[in-house]
Amino acid sequence: MPEGPLIRLVELVRRELGAKNARVELGGDPPDDPSVLWRELGGGWRIVAIFEGPPPEVEEQRARLETLVESFAGLAAGMAHVDQPSGRMPVGQALTASLADLAARAGGADAVVIDATSPVLWASSDTRGPSEDVDAALRAAALDERARSAGVALAPLLAAPEGTLGAALGRTGVSDAMAAEFGREIRAMRARLGGRTRDEAGWHRHLLVARAIAEGRRFMGASSSPGHVRESVHEEGFGLLARAFANIYLLVIAFDGPFSELHAEAATLHALSRIERLVLSLPPAPPPTGGPDGRPAQVVALRPRIRRRR
User: Fold this and answer.
1) Where is this region: Disordered (predicted)?
2) What is the number of other CB atoms lying within 10 angstroms of the CB of residue 93?
């Protein structure tokens, strides 16, 4: 279990309860001191809050501690043992289900896993076509940004039947050149669905996630330590929570408006260890059909570097 989640839990307990100090303990006898409140976490771990003296309104403080611990359910249990991915479900499906559960718990529109440089979309809580990779998301995000700058809502155009797309583009009021560009890009995005369709709400969610992927890539590119990125964005009609893990991957949750960062953070910390295990269990990404020189491309597995302690 990474140190970050533990530090976050300890800081929250200390701040929210107004304690002098807080810590996580493993084993031994629980504290027997009127100036201490504690709560079992599971796996032999407990969270301990230390006060200057017996805390006022002790039952209210105890209930508050209970609520905080429930928000981080499973955290210490993940420290005590590492569950292996279940063999009853393929890793990819288990990862999709875990991301969908995280997105729902966090109140997000979608959750995805990317890395700093490759075009591979390692996982998504939403069903995607085989060619809907990170590069496609970056193109969609750039198109959406141009459309928003021109005052055009892209999702209704993406959902418009082919026979009405030209007329719908004509009603946007943009120049003929821009309308033609939008038309080409919209048809390319729809073609990447591989015969499937999305309604307007589905395309709206898709564009939100594309924007979140682009922002996540920007955060990683701008960071001197991309393996430790922790970022959030709160804007009208858009939000994201991004957390790096395993040195090279980034978990991104996209939101369609204001969200509770504390609630989303708690849901992320609860799910991240399982998501990390599943991502590291994925097979290597398939190579392109050929390299730039025409020779067959090779499979390269993206895996984190293991730091050896001395």
Assistant:
1) 283-310
2) 11
